[in-house]
């Protein structure tokens, strides 16, 4: 097992090295064309070193594909072989030959794009910065290429030096892309003007893309917050046209604020409904595991029981003073407390019978005894409660008699306590 882990770690490090080499090549290639020969000559060892890495990567991938059989080898030839082979060529058959592999090595950037998509899929969080970081990476590459192209067209000013030449070109590139254009550096001939026009078009397209991208990312950043804002707008409209009293407005607002703080504003049922049964149970168990693990009944229960219960639990939020049910009501569900405090009341007693908090369950007496509720349950604070219907209860616990016996034992104990109180 440790050998597989070590092998996987080495493969991951090698893949990271190739991605860094491809990114470095994308930045060095235009530099080797734009700068004078004495500067470019210092880049030759680095460019050739990257080429050697690409050749080794090609050989390693061919060996891994061959070890996987004909199917794996065929799949590699149909996917990344051409890209890896072109990147590994020591010379380019294009007019852009500078040194070593030339621009064909840039096809290796396809591997960078593939890795970015994989990383983004692995980072399943609304607030993930990866999409923004990837956009910045491609922006830096694009700016560097446009900057180098402008240096080639303008010519290298040896009096300014390498750094000053690059900064001037970078300044022109950024001001042109962003449509600022101060006018202190201007095209001198038709070719430069056409290049400037192309840069402006690219800048407009990129700015439009970035605006749309940022708007989309912000809208997906926190769906709970978006739902909260939408609910507040609905409350504002209802208040304007329905004349809702101020006290009731505050209660509604507090309720929506509580949902937002607890991140309960999304509908997990819509998400779960798109999954097959096996995945649905497993995801439900993870989503509601923090609730079930606090309940003694499920702490060491069969994972299959926990998954079945989690799948059928229905979330419910109570505001202070809300009744879950009242004494004498019919019993159609039992309840599990995920957060908050509730009190048990009976007409025959002036004081509350009991207090319930996180990890407690209640309402099971009516399910077993098939009788009306023997007490009322009222929320003292904001409460997160999950309900389990009688039909689901009978369907699930029929397969788990030990769990049923434990619930029935507690139900009878509470029933006897209630009868004693009367």
Descriptive report:
The structure is a single chain. The protein is α+β, with helices and mostly antiparallel strands. It folds into 4 domains: 1-112; 123-221, Helix Hairpins (Orthogonal Bundle), CATH 1.10.287.70; 223-261; 268-421, Jelly Rolls (Sandwich), CATH 2.60.120.10. It is 64% helix and 8% strand. The protein has 19 helices and 8 strands. It has helices at residues 2-34, 37-41, 44-67, 70-78, 81-88, 109-122, 130-154, 162-177, 190-221, 223-242, 246-261, 268-273, 277-287, 289-292, 296-299, 303-312, 364-369, 390-397, 401-421; strands at residues 314-318, 323-325, 333-339, 342-345, 354-356, 361-362, 376-379, 383-389. The strands form 2 sheets. A 4-stranded antiparallel β-sheet has the order 1-8-3-6. It has a 4-stranded antiparallel β-sheet with strand order 2-7-4-5, with no helix packed on it. Helix 7 (130-154) packs across helix 8. It is elongated and about 100 Å long. It starts with a helix and ends with a helix. The model is unreliable at 1-5 and 92-101 (pLDDT under 50).
Question: Distance between termini?
Answer: 64 Å
CATH topology of the largest domain: Jelly Rolls
CATH homologous superfamily assignment of the largest domain:
Jelly Rolls
Please list the strands of the largest sheet in the order they lie side by side. 1-8-3-6
- The tally of helices reads 19
SS content category: alpha+beta
Q: How many discrete structural domains? A: 4
Provide the β-strand percentage band.
5-15%
- Cα shape: elongated
Helix content: 55-70%
SSE pattern: HHHHHHHHHHHHHHHHEEEEEEHEEHH
Radius of gyration: 33 Å
Given this structure, which CATH class of the largest domain is correct? Mainly Beta
Uncertain stretches: 1-5, 92-101
CATH architecture of the largest domain: Sandwich
Largest sheet, in brief, is: 4 strands, antiparallel
Mean model confidence by pLDDT: 76
Number of strands: 8
